[in-house]
Design goal:
The complex is a heterodimer of chains A (112) and B (113). Chain A is mostly beta strands and 112 residues long. Chain A contains no helices and eleven strands. Chain B has no helices and eleven strands. The chains are: A mainly beta (112), B mainly beta (113). Chains A and B meet through strand 5, strand 9 and strand 10 of A and strand 4, strand 5 and strand 9 of B.
Chain lengths: 112, 113
Amino acid sequence: DGGITQSPKYLFRKEGQNVTLSCEQNLNHDAMYWYRQDPGQGLRLIYYSQIVNDFQKGDIAEGYSVSREKKESFPLTVTSAQKNPTAFYLCASSMKRFYEQYFGPGTRLTVT
Amino acid sequence: AQSVTQLGSHVSVSEGALVLLRCNYSSSVPPYLFWYVQYPNQGLQLLLKYTSAATLVKGINGFEAEFKKSETSFHLTKPSAHMSDAAEYFCAVSVDNAGKSTFGDGTTLTVKP
């Protein structure tokens, strides 16, 4: 089955540690996206990539980093510089940049 | 620049009643418009999309939406609500020269028995 996988579903970290969230897709999609979701705030775009080895900052990129070394993979690192990292993180992909997006199941990150 | 406004962060209907979730967009070029649904602790799932073909778009689970250019609206409707429709709904807009979609803040739909 084609789709997007995010792992793990739940992640716990201590404050001051970097953590990397995994996102893999086997849909052969060119574009991939990372969103952060907080209660009552909808989706906020962190980073997006339209092609391998290229990515752009979204609306809230500070404290995050990404890489796109392979078409199928778009990992997100939440660094210690992110002031409030506890949130639900969603990865998505689309065939072309303006087409509909397919979402993974999300990773809920808790930092204490 | 493109933007989306969803009117009403919470909508409550009785089972069997009409569902109407409102979405207005702003775009300087012809838009692509989408409605997504999200169940608790899950990712978003596409309900339907408008890509400049028919203005009345039918989606999954009995939902439909009508693109009205004069009103810059893309409201989501369903004739008869079911308990399983309770979820959060997001409207999104995308344009050809942008690298991303812009999402609304979401509307939580509650269905009362």
